[in-house]
């Protein structure tokens, strides 16, 4: 059971999850992977979003291991190829999962598999971010604030909740019972006051790390993915420092129907040393926070000279194409068929 924290902030949508998956042995849960990616980024029609999930992660059928991660990826990849917009995409996802998840071995107390999916992102026709929740067990809307543009519907075996966030919102899913009330209030107050994506991701990481000490189903390691109003997709997960820096990348479903990753790649900091950090940068702000003391970090975060230092998505484009796009539109997922084809190969 994953802990999810999904945020619609001022100028960004952000999803954070821990990276542990467990198996049940008798009455105990045993970690089997501490580094499992649970993010699927996609682009379909006018929609760009990030999917995270919690609940039944994998199971055995006919001697084969079936992973929820792959089922979601396949469904969204097909939707992207068909350029489905939000409503048809969610209906397809819920229908596909309902069909594949039915079975006594996966059923929870309500007779349905224990699964919840969070989707956050933006639509080109709407000037504000959205958060959507597909859940087999949640019965009431998860929102902290009553807003004008919110809906709840039944879709297959799932209850569907949608919010177009005209004010900041934070929802916590999965192992939410191990998150304390003061932690919920802390992050909600900060996001409502205008916290940027980096500081929001730091708060999410601290909450997840604290929750991991309270329950074995939650891992201490976490990853955040941000889709900013202006800028490219970015993540905060990396290993190493200096000349041995490795960036990690979520799975991406492209409009062609193919998908890339999850993956990792080496980063040469010398290639991107001259410039300034975008407001909602995650990767380089996370690296800088670990490498330098507070007074130096503050100056680096405030510097506004030169070009924008790229996000993880920009770094991937730099590694493949030898250049960084300057327009910073569509989160870096690509309008151009040639770019998308090269990234997918």
TrEMBL record:
Protein name: Uncharacterized protein
Species name: Paraburkholderia madseniana
